[in-house]
Amino acid sequence: MDLDDVIPGPHYRICHSRVARAPLPAVWDALHRVTMSALPLGHALEGMRVLPARLSGKKPGPLAGRSFLDVTPIPVLFSERPHVVISAGLSQAWRLLGGPVPPHLDAAALRAWSEPGWIKAGMEFRLEPVPAGTLLSTETRVLATDPKTRRAFAAYWYVIRPGSSAIRREVLKVVARRAESSIKAR
């Protein structure tokens, strides 16, 4: 499975990659173990994302000790060790408090979803062996379900895209560094 199976033809897309000088299993383990406390920029930006909810009296859980993959607002939909993990779901991220809780859908239901007022958001981490170690790449996709939602999301994307890209690069850097360190420690 890949993001084309879930969110084909996205309106918005960002991609990043990095080579880790470590084998697939070490990179996979590092990806799944990286916590928000290991991502200073990601922790700060995620904290800003949940700030309106905190100020409104909602109590989102603490971020620091949780893994990056658990903190993202879209659930893990598919995982095939040690090659790919895909998170995908519905969102109204541009709304100050995030909108109503979306239904949890499988890949086929998410792909078929067409109710107006939602975006389909997906994030994939893919690991591939290369001569130097492991190529770790990430892709984030967003597809609006209708033109009005696409316009509403466009301004939000303009503001958050640089931060979202920076978080993805930070995750890749930390995962690569930790995977490489785990190999050296052996």
Describe what this molecule looks like in 3D.
- It contains five helices and five strands, in the order E-H-H-H-E-E-H-E-E-H.
- The mean pLDDT is 89.
- The chain has a five-stranded antiparallel β-sheet.
- The chain is an alpha+beta fold and 186 residues long.
Topology of helices and strands:
Layout: E1 12-20, H1 24-33, H2 40-55, H3 68-71, E2 76-80, E3 84-91, H4 107-112, E4 119-130, E5 133-144, H5 147-184
Antiparallel strand pairs: 1-5, 2-3, 3-4, 4-5
Helix pairs in contact: 1-5
Give the overall pLDDT as a whole number: 89
Fraction in beta strands: 15-25%
Helix content: 25-40%
Largest sheet, strands/sense/barrel: 5 strands, antiparallel
Order of helices and strands: EHHHEEHEEH
Instruction: Count the E strands.
Output: 5
Low-confidence stretches: none
What's the helix count? 5
Question: Could you list some keywords that capture this structure?
Answer:
186 residues
Write a short abstract of this structure:
With about 190 residues, the chain is of the alpha+beta class. Helix content is about 40%, strand content about 25%.
